[in-house]
Amino acid sequence: xxxxxxxxxxxxxxxxxxxxxxxxxxxxxxxxxxxxxxxxxxxxxxxxxxxxxxxxxxxxxxxxxxxxxxxxxxxxxxxxxxxxxxxxxxxxxxxxxxxxxxxxxxxxxxxxxxxxxxxxxxxxxxxxxxxxxxxxxxxxxxxxxxxxxxxxx
Length: 153
Fold this sequence. Notes:
Blueprint: H1 32-45, H2 47-57, H3 64-87, H4 90-112, E1 125-128, E2 139-142, H5 148-152
Antiparallel strand pairs: 1-2
């Protein structure tokens, strides 16, 4: 008979926390994603609340009203992309989820860096495909501090 040692019967529950942080499970009367969007909308749609939040987190406090307009636009775009993606089949929804995340990242960035207000900011990656026949020769370049990817990371 093969033995592997003593163990407790599996119950489906871990006794060990997997994270160093004390994580409290979310609970709400509605869908969790709806509740999270409502929270974001509170800061992006109620101007006085949003401006105060931006002033607490923005590097240039004088630009808070200008930053708020971009912040609100990015949150609105992200929400529209998210709910549109939820309606599509999973194979078709990926690009809209990407645009949702991109706009959420832009909303976070515009608060930290007010120099990107009213400017077009791309994703910050360049795909080089000079030799399409060989996958090994294709690569991605990160634009130097120009775009969402380098500014976020």
